[in-house]
Amino acid sequence: MPLSPPAIDGARLLADLHRLRAFGAYRTGVHRPTFSPVDMEARHWLAGRMREAGLAVEIDGIGNVIGRASGDGPRLLLGSHIETQPQAGWLDGALGVIIGLEIARALGGGVDVAAWADEEGHYGSFLGSRSFIGDVTEADIDAARNRYDGIPLREALAAAGLAGRPRAAVEPGRYLGYLEAHIEQGDELEAKGLRIGVVTSIVGIWQYRVTFEGQQNHAGTTRMAIRRDAGAALVRLAAAIERDFPGICDPRSVWTVGRITLDPGAASIIPGGAEMLFQFRDADPEVLARLERRLQELVADANAGPCRAVLHTISRSIPKVMEPRFQDALEGAATRLAPALHQRMPSGAGHDAQQLARVMPAGMLFVPSIGGISHHWSEDTAEPDIVLGCQVMAHAVADLLDAG
Amino acid sequence: MPLSPPAIDGARLLADLHRLRAFGAYRTGVHRPTFSPVDMEARHWLAGRMREAGLAVEIDGIGNVIGRASGDGPRLLLGSHIETQPQAGWLDGALGVIIGLEIARALGGGVDVAAWADEEGHYGSFLGSRSFIGDVTEADIDAARNRYDGIPLREALAAAGLAGRPRAAVEPGRYLGYLEAHIEQGDELEAKGLRIGVVTSIVGIWQYRVTFEGQQNHAGTTRMAIRRDAGAALVRLAAAIERDFPGICDPRSVWTVGRITLDPGAASIIPGGAEMLFQFRDADPEVLARLERRLQELVADANAGPCRAVLHTISRSIPKVMEPRFQDALEGAATRLAPALHQRMPSGAGHDAQQLARVMPAGMLFVPSIGGISHHWSEDTAEPDIVLGCQVMAHAVADLLDAG
């Protein structure tokens, strides 16, 4: 198939991705926390590249980098994010921003490009894209702190030179919709030998903290029979989840105990307190509700033991369905450029697209992740897959703009 | 029964215990870490009380406070420790030291008293009593650091005013043996309505670190089937221990998972690493060996899963049998002063007596712990039980000195 329309420049795309990778390079990955000096350097570099592409660029009061095309006519918004998880990969986020930039360059109009600040949640949850759709108040910003070092968001914004800048807001009617390219971050495409994923929906993520209260005591002198060991109660709940969830989940459901803390955490002291962070994800609200019911039952069972267990809900995000017309456009382009090497699939990760989808039609395209690895410095995607992903997205964008 | 011989002064004993409790008071307990300013204040106060009792006092180069009686004849060494665990109880250690002091006062000779430094292991393991028996080198001291804040032991000794002081060493032939009074730290005496425990042996403590290596990955996009979740592997091992140990242990065996760490410990990241601290205790070397064999088998089983599990041995202490003649003396005194309210029993906790037992005969006496609670600020013992414990120990000391 010819690459035109539109003629994207694969070498230019890859060169920009590798340049961006150098900001905060860590082994073969990147360490670029939101609003760190190196993150701000990267945002200013990106703004410069957008300007060279003929876009009118703004870095707004929450750190979003937005490049707007001049001219009238139908318009699409393309984007993702550029900060990273700690010691993480070079493509998670960066790929979608630079693909957006390349398509804006290739089409010469009709495409705005955005790098949403803090998708990775150093200070909050989807701060930049939620600010853009009007879902972040000044009070939210006052209250937010860095999850790793506790620095207030206000202080970080001031240090980044962003204090007092206005925050950009979505202009009603400006866009046909939003499109985001992203690495899959799983191994499904690779395992099936496919090169393109057309995202059907973004899963809901339900997150919990479970706390256990027992009795701290001496680990040598307290008989097993009278112990109220909060750590042992936690292990029993975690084991019960592993026993029960496989029987009631959907094939694509996932669940994770991400953190366990025992208090006081010493070799010779029976833990008097314990806490675990637990989450599960699925694209089906009924499956999410079923998993939560079982979790509630297991916590109730735990309370029949010697320790008190309490289930605290942290968040429950609703699965977001991607615009069918955008899915069709992406699939159509994939069929032309990579026949039989694509599939429709849900996204197991959260993305800025789920926020934009609250105010406009949205779609997403995945490229394969080598070994399914992400949120780790060794994350990678084959360069031909990156270029193909950009080509498919560019064709879909051109088709959607043509259709108007 | 008459209290004499010897005439201990219960009010004086309790007054000294309550005075010592005021150094680092925390709620109804005490926070007095080894070599902290308040711990050193307490050591100097104790040295003063020993001098008032007619003992020749030394605070040695490792912080041991040793009071020596003048005169010839048979001699016993009585002691324990005075520093505490963090935010812990007022009697763990302090009881044995002040009972020793009271008996030295009551007998007026034949009794040396020691407060061994750092039994609670802020910087090491039984530093003071091991130094006294010649089991701590200068290189050990150079290498030791505070387990909570990492401060080098050398620095702490200098700040405490102990740098350059000689370390006291056991004088061969000076003692018939060593005796230590201590709170039980368990609930066995209380549960049986008893008031005195005669210790038969101090259990062996076998401690391990188990590390798990998996693959850090994204908690949303990585299918359950391909995960190498180090935290899940840890939970499986901990649950298998809970399943198997009850079937192969002795009635008094205890085991504890004191700490669990998942790496990196974030809600949306599959742990790539995990670690647990695990220990078990028993008075029987064969039981200890049997529990270790099962632990080794379970770790081997874990290695059949997707993560690599490694068992690191931290320490394996050998159970120490208490001198039968000392047990008889303590039981004889208990039979006179608290008929049918005493029993022989092993100690589930480690004590300085197990170090002294390596170079001389040793014995221990327990008084009940209310609710079996220890290593917590709410630790307590009824005052009549404290006084009775001192009386029993004093009678046994007098009998042993008489026998020579």
UniProtKB/TrEMBL annotation, chains A, B:
Signal peptide: none annotated. It holds the Pfam family Peptidase_M20. It comes from the Bacteria. Its cofactor is Zn(2+); Mn(2+). Residues 203-303 form the Peptidase M20 dimerisation domain. Zn(2+) 2 binds at residues 92, 120, 375. Gene3D superfamilies: 3.30.70.360, Zn peptidases. Keywords: Hydrolase, Manganese, Metal-binding, Zinc. Belongs to the peptidase M20 family. This is Zn-dependent hydrolase. It comes from Rhodovastum atsumiense.
